[in-house]
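Q: For a teaching handout, I want to show students what a protein-ligand complex looks like in token form. Below are the inputs, and the small molecule is fe (ii) ion. Please produce the holo structure.
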Amino acid sequence: MSSNLERSILNRVLLIMSLGGVLIFGLSTMRIVTEGFQPKFGLMWLVAASIISLRLFRNKLQAKAIGFLLFALFTIMGLVALLNDGLASIGSIFLFLGLSTSAVVVGTKTFFLLIGLQFTAFSAITALTVMDVLAPVPDDTVEYLTSGKTWLFHGIVISIGAAISFYGSNLLGQWYRNNLTETKDTFYNAISILSLARDTETGEHIARVSKYSEILYDALTHNQKEQLHFTRDELKKSVRLHDVGKISISDALLKKPSKLSEDEFEEMKLHTTVGADIIGSILNHHQREDRVLSLGQSVALNHHENWDGSGYPNGLESTKIPIEARIMAIADVYDALRSKRPYKTAYSHAETIRRMTSMSGSKFDPDLFETFLSVADQFDRAYATSPVSKEDDIDG
Ligand SMILES: [Fe+2]
Ligand SMILES: [Fe+2]
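A: Here is the structure, written as tokens, with fe (ii) ion included.
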């Protein structure tokens, strides 16, 4: 679960608890006035003061530390209550509260360790009470602590508490992750739509290269042939950002029906570095790592690099070109050849493969190209089922 979410849950818990702390403080003070000072009232003061301090210094502490401290405080309160006549069942509820608050920030293993700790403390208190070490305690406390019903009650409360806490925090975490994924996807789409706004390329081109990258990813990782440093989903989303830098290129260039002059080509090359800079600035404003954006930045910068070092912007060679960009190069060229562009007609699958094969080892990574050939029919199917492809004229 995100630490932001943990923190906001803990902050709310702390607010309610500190109000409870003020109440505990007031009640213990009243009882000191009417009944005289007893150690248990002093302890209640300490607990109340600790909870209020936790609330005051919440921003100076890690969420996990707050969770552990709340667990400790509630557990102490619960155990103290268990030793006091008439408060026994409330004691179990305090123990349960301690577990619930800690469940927000600790993992499953630690959570069960905390249940073990509580149970050990509960058993130790019972044993010490029975052995009269913890004397003097009221007779009915001994009765309460040693009765089967108490243990059953304690067990049931803890089991239900554990189930609710886990279900609740997992559900909340799931909800948060889904929301975050949706928001992020909208954001990535917004960036890729920017690159479409002025380009001759279409949304379908973006959707298709995304699909091709998935096909290549699956072929590469099939039977664990290759270990890639990103997931299929991250790659699929990041390739959509490859031409975002084209928003800086003039319409005259983007829509030119003939081949670009040398100067014009130099200007066109800038879309790689501009794209990487745009994504880089977004990343700089981001507080935490965003793997899709980092991968997108690499794809934007390197998708026109060639295997033999003749590409741009940095003239990188062979495996110095990141694998995500080598995948993108194949996906992008396949789609460009299949599609109608201002300067060319659309080619058939066979013609596209023929043209691309002549570029293996010069433009494309030869090993990756072999993998591409093994799944090329899936590229053809993805192109054929794409809505605009039917409108393109096939030539050659
Ligand atoms: Fe490009
Ligand atoms: Fe493209």
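A: Two things your students might notice: Confidence is low (pLDDT under 50) at residues 390-396. The pocket of fe (ii) ion (ligand 2) is lined by residues 201, 205, 242-243, 332 (CB under 6 Å).
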